[in-house]
Design a protein that fits this description.
Shape: globular
Number of helices: 20
Largest sheet: 6 strands, mixed
Distance between the termini: 13 Å
Keywords: Cell inner membrane, Cell membrane, Ion transport, Membrane, Signal, Transport
Pfam families: NMT1_2
Strand content: 15-25%
Number of strands: 15
Organism: Limnofasciculus baicalensis BBK-W-15
CATH topology of one domain: D-Maltodextrin-Binding Protein, domain 2
CATH class of one domain: Alpha Beta
Subcellular location: Cell inner membrane
InterPro entries: NrtA/CpmA_ABC-bd_dom
Amino acid sequence: MERRRFLKYTSLAATGLVFAACNSGDSGKKSASDSSSPKPGHDFGTLEKTDLTVGIIPVSESAPLVIAKEKGFFERYGINVNLSKQLDWQAVQDGLIAGKLDASQALFGMPMLAKLGAAKADMISLMVLNLNGGGITLSQKAWDGGIRAGIEYLTFPEFADAYRKYIKAFEEKAKLAVDFTVSMNNYNYRYWLAAMGINPNKDVEVIEIPPSQMVHKIKAGFIDGYCVSEPWNQQAIYEKTGFSSYITPTIWKGHPGNILATMEPWVKENPVTARALVAAVLEACQFCDRPENRPEIVQILAQSKYLNTDAKPVGASLDGTYNYGGFDNKNRVKSIPDFYLFNFRDTNYLKQPNNANYPWRSHGVWLLTQMIRWNHLDLQEYPKDADKIIDKTYPLEIYADVAQALKIKLPSDRMKVEPAEVFIDGRKFDPSQPVEYLNSFDIRA
């Protein structure tokens, strides 16, 4: 990875907005059944550090951290958290490595990039915050060019044929945006394009834009499409500046989303605090997946100090009433109750004891194959010590300790096969055969 990828947006990184979420207003009120102070959580021991700065990005995946603050889950575990709203993912990475952030909402691929990329920093994932959650928005230009939402086509190959012809007819390469090099949105986007026979390294220009700026860029005609987390796909539909073509759960059902990340030295210095932090966020994840709580979560997230947008686009993905939009006033609202999974809902791809927060080693294997596939690391082949790297970057110990304390069952194996039916191209992923899987792709860097 070139050094410029790590220095991009450095001037923005220093301007992260730090605030303490207030307990005033409806979003911070406790129910009548609550006592004046929250009941204490599991006691992991004496906290080494009680005042923490935790980073968030204005996307819906921040919900567990926001809810942990607003609903008192951090307080239950004796932690006082200031949430630091970062402008983009580069700021998150820089803040963690520099020690300005104790922990942060982060991208699934960020610890791997920090460790194996130019930074050579020991960033680790403490837990997964969510599964699914992204979408692909296209411009009105694409609509005028005859492209429609994927749900309008009988099959994916039918859509692929139309979109491939549309893209390859550009005199200059279409500009498509992602939120960061190693985001799951980027890898899902590339997977989707390549499955249609479109080489994201040759046939289009993929650029990085902070999530909250995506809508403005597509409205200005600067980009022809983007893949990002919510609410920024639904926001484009709400403002009538774009329409949704595909959602990432149709590219890979149950793909990992964001994570809670920190630095390995921080955990060594604060092992008890790390466990208390994970426990608080894990309980918040459970809260976020109860359908009766979603309306309140929407109102909290929409506030200016968090997502700073209207509640309607926030709610569309969280309450399962996803709108694919369009420019013909046709109703394309579909029920997608598993668009965001923060902990557990029974689906055909998520069964107990699996849950959204479990750190699968196999997900790390998949990530590493795609980082090599698209030349995002200085690696020409899959490393022989990959399992050791993944276990160090996505460790199980802390999560397992917390899960045991909260009486959450764990899978018996950290590796799981992703069946062909969960991927849009019908390609099975067997994590025990990463080299064969990597070599099965015709389109790669």
